[in-house]
Amino acid sequence: MSWLASIKVRLFVICWIVYSAFFATNVVREHYPAFALIERGDWVCDRYEGFHADLFRHTDGHVYTGNNLMGSLIAVPPLALFDPLLDKLEERSKAKLADSGGVVDATYDTKYPLRQKMFRRVKEAGLDLRFGASTAITSAFLMAPLCAAFVVLMYSTLLARGIERKRAVWLAFLFAFATPVFYRSAHLNHNVFLMMVLFGAFLALWPRPGEGERLSTARRALGGFLCGMAISLDYAGFVPAGMLALYFVIPRVRSGGLATALKEALPSVLAALPPILFLLGTQWAMYGNAFTPGQFVMPRQNEFVDIGARGIMLPSTEVFFKNLVSPSWGLIPFAPLLLFAFLPGRRADETSRVLPRHERLWVWLYTLAFLGFCAMNVYSLLQFNTGFRYLLPVVPFLFLFAADPLARLDRRWLAALTVAVVFHAVVLQMYREVSDTENDLRRVAVQLGTSSMSVDGYWEQMLTKTPVPASFVRLFHDGPELPWLTVLRQTSPNSAWLGSSFLALGLIVAVAAASWGVWRLGARAAARRGPTV
Description:
Elements: H1 7-21, H2 31-40, E1 55-57, E2 63-65, H3 70-81, H4 83-99, H5 113-124, H6 128-160, H7 165-177, H8 180-184, H9 190-205, H10 217-233, H11 238-256, H12 258-287, H13 317-325, H14 331-334, H15 357-376, H16 395-408, H17 411-431, H18 437-448, H19 458-462, H20 467-478, H21 483-491, H22 503-529
Helix pairs in contact: 1-6, 1-22, 2-3, 4-6, 6-7, 7-16, 9-10, 9-11, 10-11, 10-12, 11-12, 11-15, 13-15, 17-20
């Protein structure tokens, strides 16, 4: 076990174990194009028509998804690797379906009608085992290791910025298990990829201490490629990618002139082209026009489509503040730890700061710009069915802000804070509660011509039925849970062993014990070899 002597390796392994244990069985829109590419070699999702709201039949007679496809492309390698297994599972489901004469048991003991309808459709198509295994594969062999590696990257960044090793480890675990990185690691989603590439681009373009402003060609190219990836993953990536371009160009214009800045930006621009060309090419392949986003060819799905330009309008104060404080999907209710990012900094030597003055200013401008853009996106109000996601790209940047006061916090206070915020995050992760309560209240208010807070019973419902408080209600009502185990129980209500109230608790204790064992084994190996990062 000498390989566990490295703190980075231990961080990675522990995060991979925990993230995998808490995976969720969500078959999301990114899955279907990945399935199609493996099965057909193209992006045509005819086989999966009706399985997701974002799948629609285009004028060429084929079914496509309305979202960017880079997230689906990233999911292809693990799904392709396990495709023979998935084929076997599908054959088994269809054989069982044939033996039953087409009569399926689609029992799903859930309060969500759409989930019941989806499960029946999947069972009738003989895809239940294939879809379930696919979610496990993309969670355990893609999302979990990627998020674990991202935690290691944050640890390395904190070390590089002068945080003492033990405190950097502590903060890295807080980043792993007390921010929405934990919540969003549970299933395939492009928001995590967008967060990662934007933070990676920032690190690539952030001069290291004593390095000066002239970056190597490789780092400039890497920053540009990751910005291109951000745009290819989601059109929301245009705003932060533009902010990153300004972060690089403006200091170089001041120090070397405009010509120097443009010359040094050329590798970034060229490196950004491949992912952007992928975006344009896939849009041309699906919609017949490289410059037509899927949102503009999809049929009407909800009332928000009719607001502004297909759901994009001038910034809304309602959306802005709900993105921050809504107990359904808000940044602070899902990550109270990040309140430390809003504390005023102490007056001290710049070298004592995790973020120097220039980077602090840029992070705040970046955060405000992204919040403003998200406030233009009325689809933010649809997050009731996913929990926190749209503001994920600001999380690592705000954490760097929070790291400064957290690094100085007394050990006893930090321990108490850790227990509180990690417990909070684990509860949200265990139940992944979703609710349309907030939007139901909003619709009633619109009909009455008043504000949401004026609706009878507003605060009672907000404080009991929205996802954050409802998760704690379920903790005391149902006991500890794991997301995938909940689905197994709901779809197999007659299973005695699944119904045991101690099963989830036992699994959680086993995961905690395995994580502790990894850390202790690594610590002993490190003691024999000497300190290692």
